[in-house]
Amino acid sequence: MPTVLEAAPPSAKGLEGVVANQSSICYVFGEEGRLIYRGYDIHDLAEHSTFEETAYLLLRGDLPTRDQLAVFLTELKAAQKLPKVVQRVIKDAPLTAHPMNVLRTAVSASVFADADHGDESAAAEYRKAVRLIAQLPTMVAMFHRLRNGQRPLAPRRGLSLAANFLYMISGAVPDAEAAKALDVALILHADHELNASTFAARVIAATLADMHGAVTGALGALAGPLHGGANTEVMKMLLEIGSPDRAEAWVREGLARKRKIMGFGHRVYRTEDPRAAHLRRMAEHLGRKAGQPQWFAIQRIIEDVMRREKGLCCNVDFYSASMYYVMGIPLDLYTPIFAISRVSGWCAHVLEQHADNRLIRPRAEYVGPMNRSWTSLGRRR
Ligand code: ACO
Question: Alpha-carbon Rg of the chain, whole angstroms?
Fold first, then answer.
């Protein structure tokens, strides 16, 4: 008889290096610092694509033709308005709630009004995915306006998803540069292989739970500061540091105290995250344009210190933080913006999981006590 420990090989803590499934959606080349969606390099997509086109690519596997894109945009526009039940849930949320908690609850509630609820066919799941991609920005913006005592705005015709989001939170149609910057950020965040939230979505989907359940679970995973929540933490750090002359000492002290410096490190990349280069460039440009170059200056110093002291590069959450800040976006909307983009990846993974499903059920390496004798309640100490 094997003992429990012999029966299972030692676990990789945090599943590091474990290949959990096959996928044709996205791949991270950790050593080279390369990222592809459906075979396309992220640099090409960031330079030439739009978020809508990228979302279609993730869901369908190929870039859309002109006609296919027109249909997709029409489907998205038709689904942007929130069902009444979702509006009620958002209106009932405490004004002090974290927008990620409101978003997660609103997404969960949106199943009540979903026209395809109960139909798990690929065609129905695709329609659910389109509705979720269309509605997440409206959900976030609605809550944001309500908590500011403002009237929520209906989606505006003729705007991209990124521009429309900026319009719905601020009430002003953004200039082309701001809309383009957010659009590129959404492209860069749209998928990232088996990151924690996507894995959570696939685990849920693999029980044959539906799209809304998987996306709700993924939102829960994304919110954590080790994952999508890091972008907000980065900006809090920059505000605390305040000026470039304090940056080096602040980071050195943090490292001496064994603190994690937010926006650095990655489970897979061993070199620079390819998404960071685009965000660095946009953060510098928009910071200068907004008359707030200090955040970028602080970040360059932090980046140098982290590379020298720890050999660590920044990740996607580092420069997105100051970019959103100088665009006037409140700190607690950074992670919801991540979600507005990543929902396209989550939905693509749920579709892929359901197309060739097997329950995801790993084993634990048992390290607890064995062979204990039963003690009755009165004799326990
Ligand atoms: N600051 C300081 N030290 C760090 C950092 C950091 N940001 N990241 C890793 N390290 C150090 C750890 O202290 C550890 O050192 P040790 O071996 O001396 O104890 C070593 O590097 C390995 O770190 P782990 O946390 O074990 O690495 P893991 O692969 O488990 O974690 C993670 C990756 C969670 C991203 C980690 O680097 C981290 O916590 N970063 C800060 C949070 C962050 O930016 N998250 C966003 C990630 S990207 C995304 O999810 C969108």
Answer: 22
CB crowding 285-310: b at 16 or more within 10 Å, else e: ebbeeeeeebbbbbbebbbebbeeee
Kindly list the protein residues whose Cβ atom lies closer than 6 A to any atom of ligand 1: 14, 195, 226-228, 230, 260-267, 310, 312, 315-317
Q: How many helices (H) and strands (E) does the chain have?
A: 17, 3
What pTM was estimated for this model as a whole? 0.96
Given phi > 0 = left and psi -120 to 50 = alpha, else beta, which region is 63? Answer: beta
Phi, psi of 350, deg, nearest 5: -65, -45
Distance (Å) from CA 380 to ligand 1 centroid: 42
Q: Assess contact for 181 and 327: CB atoms under 8 A.
A: yes
Residue 162: alpha-carbon gap to chain centroid: 15
Q: The sheet that has 34-37: what strands, in order across it?
A: 26-29, 34-37, 40-41
Q: What is the pLDDT of residues 17-67, one digit of tens each?
A: 999 999 999 999 999 999 999 999 999 999 999 999 999 999 999 999 999
Could you tell me the distance, in angstroms and rounded to a whole number, from the CA of residue 332 to the centre of ligand 1? 22
